[in-house]
Amino acid sequence: MASVADHAYRLMCKKYGAALVVGEMASSKGMFYSDRKTAELLAVTEEEYPMGVQLFGSEPDIMALACKKAAKFQPQFIDINMGCPVQKVVTTGSGSALMKTPQLAADIVKACVDAVDLPITVKIRKGFDDTCINAVELACMLEEAGASAITVHGRTKRQMYNPPVDIDIIKAVKQAVSIPVIGNGDVATPQLAKEMYEKTGCDLVMVGRGSYGHPWIFEEIDRYLTDGTLLPSKSIDERLEIMLEHISLICQFKGERQGIRESRKHAAWYVKGMHGAAKFRNACGALDSYQDVLELVRQVKACNPAQE
Ligand SMILES: Cc1cc2nc3c(=O)[nH]c(=O)nc-3n(C[C@H](O)[C@H](O)[C@H](O)COP(=O)(O)O)c2cc1C
């Protein structure tokens, strides 16, 4: 997830049970022009393995070149984004706009597959809008073009992130292709993960926003799928400890100044649901130093005394 799933976030998700992580999407054009910031998005560390990086773009030859450059960062696969609904991306014909140009989408996959010796996977949506619901046809074309796996977010571009996910379209894609299919959308509890597996037959489940301020969701899901156990909710103290661990990592990788700025949204996600959360949300937005974070933790604890 762009601006969310950075190195620190991925390490937290891995530590708390994620089987596989993917980097924030990076522009193929940025790669082409050797943009330094874009290259930072592609950095991969062995601790994060198994890990893939994600590229977006709309020109097969530039995407192929970007894959070659991305391969140097040693990801274990390269994912192509065909689901991003952001206007800036869509107007260039990239991201979810590719749902409307399936032949170009297939040409991109073929060019990337030919360019590197790594699995090329693709993330798609249900379709572009109500008049263009084509995840099944597109998935078949992408498989034919050489894609190794497909993630389906069960909403159209027009639906952005809100209406309930269409589970049936994920099931239909799974039935139509023989490569692995990853189900995505609204998986925020272990029960919903199980439902995604059972109702769609998908091979893996992808969790996005359900991991906000809750990276241990992956071990909760894992345990539930393994033996039906719903792990007890973490205490406020445990949650705050994990938040501190996360923010320390962000600061370690990005420096305190930038790190704390980027930690504000994470802090707000961690304190969500705690007593006084509305008040603390504002305090999160004003965090300026690690010391402020420690003070926030002190105040949240004072407002949320430990239960015997
Ligand atoms: C802030 C934000 C950033 C995202 N960035 C990406 C991205 O870079 N690449 C991608 O494939 N999907 C991205 N997504 C979409 C998510 O991966 C996921 O498909 C979507 O949020 C639905 O899953 P969820 O309900 O589990 O969050 C992003 C979503 C959000 C909310």
TrEMBL record:
Q: Which reaction does it catalyse?
A: a 5,6-dihydrouridine in tRNA + NAD(+) = a uridine in tRNA + NADH + H(+); a 5,6-dihydrouridine in tRNA + NADP(+) = a uridine in tRNA + NADPH + H(+)
Q: Where along the sequence do coiled-coil regions lie?
A: none
So which domain of life are we looking at?
Bacteria
Annotated active site residues, numbered on this chain, are: C84 (proton donor)
A GO MF annotation of the entry reads:
tRNA dihydrouridine synthase activity
Please provide the record's keywords in A-Z order.
Answer: Flavoprotein, FMN, NADP, Nucleotide-binding, Oxidoreductase, RNA-binding, tRNA processing, tRNA-binding
Top EC class of this enzyme:
oxidoreductase
> What InterPro entries does this protein map onto?
Aldolase_TIM, DUS-like_FMN-bd, DUS_fam, DusB-like, tRNA-dHydroUridine_Synthase_C, tRNA_hU_synthase_CS
SUPFAM superfamilies given in the database record = FMN-linked oxidoreductases
Task: Write the Enzyme Commission number(s) for this entry.
Answer: 1.3.1.-
- Similarity comment text for this entry: Belongs to the dus family.
Q: What is this protein called?
A: tRNA-dihydrouridine synthase
State the organism of origin. Answer: Massiliimalia timonensis
